[in-house]
Amino acid sequence: MPNFAYVIKDEAGNRLEDYIRSATVESAMESLRKKGADIISIREVKSQFQAERLTIPEQVNLFFFKLRTRVPLNILVFFTRQLATMFSAGLTLEKSVANLMIEEKNKKFRKVLAQVSNDLKKGMALSDAMANHPGVFSNLYVALVRAGEISGSLHVTLEQLSNYLETIAETRRKVVSAMAYPVFSICFLALILTVLLVFIVPLFQDVYAKFGAKLPIATRTLIAVSQLISENFLLSAAIIFGIVVLLWIISMTEKGGLAFDSIKLKFPVFGTLLSNSIMNKFSKTFGILLGAGVPVLDSLTQIQKVVGNKVVEKGIRESKVLIKDGFAISVAMKKSQVFPPTLVQLAATGEETGEIDALLMKAGDFYEKQVDAIVERLTSLIEPLLIVLIGSVVLVVIISLYLPIFYLGMAVQHGL
Q1: What confidence tens digit (pLDDT) does each residue in 11-27 have?
Q2: Residue 252 domain-assigned?
Q3: What is the rounded distance in angstroms from the CA atom of residue 85 to the CA atom of residue 173?
């Protein structure tokens, strides 16, 4: 019997989201109506947990679709803020989107806004119109807009959303800036080694072959590696590309993703940076969703799609099950063993005081400061360490190349 995911308003006007098993969508709707529910949306899914996960082909297709249709985050932030201003000034959503479409210079985004505008003219809700463009408007974005529509405070939600997107963009910029230099340096080192092994080492090999002398083991090893890469360059490149693609596909599976993301979080320094960045995103996203009136389980479902780490996603799934069984949010977070004690304690305090959304936002600020501190330390330490690494590797290659010359000089000297 198929499963259906539904969003309803109960008799008290509360928004609820859950799953129901029924033979057809019509019978599922009839069962919900008998309970006095006002149905907002209903769709068929494979199962409750499969509804939260995509198959590997679906993930690959979605990745390339988002890559093809994405727009810069700063454009989305500007659009959101302008839309909030126009809507709060009394313009209709249809008119606001149409005006922003005319002024938009990004061709891809202008095309998206044209489609959103057409959907609004047909009577579609703004959140539903945006949901048709997952490459531009994320699940979280759509969920917040939908919450604003239901609560009647869309302009406030849009303003909060633009502030949130600016914060996330700033955090992402800091993390990328911290990791960009080491990644570039390692790639540059790989390029230097490739040039040395493919072009320079063979020249020395020809010279050494004329002497016919026995070479040191370090030089023989270097020449063997050079021959392997030079004679099979295209094959080596294809193998490396295949391994990268295979690892990427494995990372999309549940077990593979958990393994890769667990290694990322345990990596020295960078793991702490990534963990603090994720907790910053989790805290601020959870806080803004709860502040917008989105139910706890609905909020966690949306957060699960945007944290970008399968270890944390697993912890959120476990927390949702525990909360559904009656546990407090902080208790469920603690039992999942994913969230740090500071965040759990702030969530517990928020539950006691009834201001959990505000305290979650403060937790987000705390982790943002942690990210800033780590980036500052990395900036001062990473550059000299990488210079030492690159210098050491190049020095080993050069010494291996010149060892036979040293031996030859010593032999000549002893002969004299």
Answers
A1: 776 666 676 777 777 77
A2: yes
A3: 26
